[in-house]
Structures are given as C-alpha cells and as structure tokens.
Automatic annotation (TrEMBL):
This is Putative solute carrier family 25 member 38-B. It comes from Stichopus japonicus (Sea cucumber). InterPro entries: MCP_dom_sf, MCP_transmembrane. PROSITE patterns: SOLCAR (PS50920). The keyword Transmembrane applies. Keywords: Membrane, Transmembrane, Transport. The lineage of its organism: Eukaryota, Metazoa, Echinodermata, Eleutherozoa, Echinozoa. Belongs to the mitochondrial carrier (TC 2.A.29) family. Signal peptide: none annotated. GO terms for molecular function: glycine transmembrane transporter activity.
Length: 148
C-alpha cells in the first residue's frame, strides 16, 4: 500500500494499484518508450496490408507491369480472405515495436542533452547550424580571397 492511505487493514485497493502504476509511468524514459512502442504498433497494424502488397510485388517473378497491385490484392483475398492482408504481422511487430520505442528513448535523451525544448520536425535547427557554419566559413574565405 502507498503511504498515507486511509485504509487500516492490509488489503490493497484498486486505487492503490492504479496509483503505483502511474508512479512507474512518470519516468520520462519509460513514457517515451511506451509512446514509441504504441505508435509503432498502430502504424504497423494500419500499414501492414500495404507492406504485404509491396513485398508481393517486389518478389513476383513476372514484371510488376504484368501483375499489378489489384491482381495481387485479389489473389491474397481469394486465397486467404481479408485477414490474409495482415500475414506476416508478428515479425513486423517484433521488429517495429521495440525499434520505435528505442528510437523515441534516444530522441528523448538527445533532446535533453542538446537542451532543446522541442525537436524540429524537419531538422531545421540542425540545418540552420550547418548553414551558419558553412556560410561563415565560406564568406570569410571568399572575402579574404577578394582582398588579395
């Protein structure tokens, strides 16, 4: 039981279990891993049919122009039903869930070490620093050559 609980007996209530679970999730590393794992799970579940179709197109012996995506889709649906589109889901989840979770953890650590309040979506901060470095180096070299 959590300290300061009003219960006098030794039973643990559902509220105590919920509170202890929330305390564990307060760790930012755990939160970022869970967020990444959840996003990896959802994206894999949603995009698995397209990934399967892409893989079948790439591995087909005939050229992709002869065997289009609609024919491959119809073949999968005819032979395996609608759930056949999620064939290979387990290996995809086994790869994606921990991978994206670790990616989010690393991103969180990088954000903390670089002291950015938000990381840029398109890498604008990194791009600006590189541009400033290149411009200052180039302009100083270029202006010194013109003075000679």
């Amino acid at each position: 039981m959590l300290p300061g609980n009003a219960m006098s007996d030794s039973r643990v209530s559902k509220d105590d279990i919920k509170a202890e679970s929330l305390i564990r999730i307060q760790n930012p590393i755990v939160k970022s891993f869970l967020a990444g794992s959840l996003s990896g799970t959802l994206s894999t579940l949603i995009l698995q049919p397209l990934d399967l179709l892409k893989t079948r197109i790439q591995s087909s012996r005939s050229s992709p122009s002869q065997r289009g995506i609609t024919l491959i889709f119809a073949d999968i649906y005819r032979n395996h039903g609608v759930f056949g589109l999620w064939k290979g889901l387990t290996p995809s989840l086994a790869r994606t869930v921990p991978g994206v979770g670790l990616y989010f953890c690393c991103l969180h650590n990088l954000q903390g070490q670089l002291k950015w309040s938000t990381l840029p979506a398109s890498g604008n901060h990194v791009g600006r620093y590189i541009q400033k470095f290149c411009r200052s180096d180039f302009t100083s070299t270029y202006s010194n050559q013109n003075k000679i």
